[in-house]
Design a protein that fits this description.
Elements (H helix, E strand, L loop, with lengths): L1 E8 L5 H7 L3 E5 L6 H12 L10 E8 L4 H5 L4 E6 H11 L4 H11 L22
Antiparallel strand pairs: 1-3, 1-4, 2-3
Helix pairs in contact: 2-5
Amino acid sequence: MKKHVAVRLKSYYHGDAGFQYNGATVVNSALEKRDPALKNIMEELHNQGLAFEVDKCKVFWFQIDDDKPAEFYTNFNEVELAFESEWYEAQKGRIRSMTGNQYYNACADIVKGFVLKDQSRLINYKVPTKAA
């Protein structure tokens, strides 16, 4: 099943290795640059306290595919948020016809249930490698 994952990395190029290590395939990356709803969601998350950088790591969004639930990924220190892509697409479909402030406010409503992690934590940043 596909899911959206916001992960803290020094570079989004490091995401592929981490997801592959956990048996996931990266379907799409850098979603925050192309998805207007996700841009608004990120802006609201920043308004709610999401730091632009934690331990010199920025947030990058990936869509991944595997058989694990989204909650599996939220257990990782590097992961800020994870949710099912199907749920997200339903949310976007619900607000698609909105414009301007109404659209932005609807995006802000999407994140009301999200809980942010401690933004002063250290990110134990390592590119995983499989032992031989």
